[in-house]
């Protein structure tokens, strides 16, 4: 004996499946757009940490220019290129930091993210 599906359900998609699929697509769209901001933040932070490690053999002007060039290549706002470099005597360390904000304008979601990347390295 062959079982047949109930009438009206054969090959039809349920509303729950469509809602789940719509939710997944929306989450991916928002995730990619917001994730891009954090990806750029971590690229800048990585560059700052690299320059902090090289700091004993570099002057502050060279470090600043390298980080500013990286921020520009990454596509960060000009505000991110205002780098502060402090060399402390006790404890002997270098601190490199900046602040900037980026705004995301998406359907149903407008938010400004504030970033404060900071790299500290002993000298």
Beta-strand segment tally: 5
The total tally of domains equals: 1
Provide the β-strand percentage band: 15-25%
Computed over alpha carbons, the radius of gyration is 24 Å
Global shape: elongated
Number of helices, where a helix is a run of at least 4 consecutive DSSP H or I residues: 2
Helix content: 40-55%
Low-confidence stretches: none
Pattern of helices and strands? HHEEEEE
What features would you describe in this structure?
This protein is α+β, with helices and mostly antiparallel strands. It has one domain. The chain is 45% helix and 24% strand. It is built from 2 helices and 5 strands. The strands form 2 sheets. Strands 1-2-5 form a 3-stranded antiparallel beta sheet, with helices on one face. Helix 1 packs antiparallel against helix 2 (60-74). The longest helix is centred in the N-terminal third of the chain and has 40 residues, at 15-54. The radius of gyration is 24 Å and the shape is elongated.
Question: Could you give the topology of this structure?
Answer:
Layout: H1 15-54, H2 60-74, E1 84-88, E2 93-97, E3 100-106, E4 109-115, E5 118-122
Describe the structure using short key phrases.
single chain, 123 residues, alpha+beta, 3-stranded antiparallel β-sheet, two-stranded antiparallel sheet, elongated
């Amino acid at each position: 004996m062959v079982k047949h599906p109930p009438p009206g359900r054969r090959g039809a998609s349920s509303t729950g499946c469509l809602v789940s699929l719509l939710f997944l697509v929306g989450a991916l769209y928002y995730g990619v757009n917001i994730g891009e901001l954090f990806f750029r933040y971590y690229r800048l932070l990585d560059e700052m940490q690299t320059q902090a490690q090289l700091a004993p053999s570099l002057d502050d002007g060279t470090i600043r220019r390298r980080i500013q060039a990286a921020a520009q290549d990454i596509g960060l706002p000009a505000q991110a290129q205002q780098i502060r470099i402090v060399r402390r005597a006790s404890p002997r360390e270098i601190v490199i930091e900046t602040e900037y904000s980026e705004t995301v304008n998406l359907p149903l979601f407008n938010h400004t993210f504030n970033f404060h990347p900071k790299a500290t390295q002993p000298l």
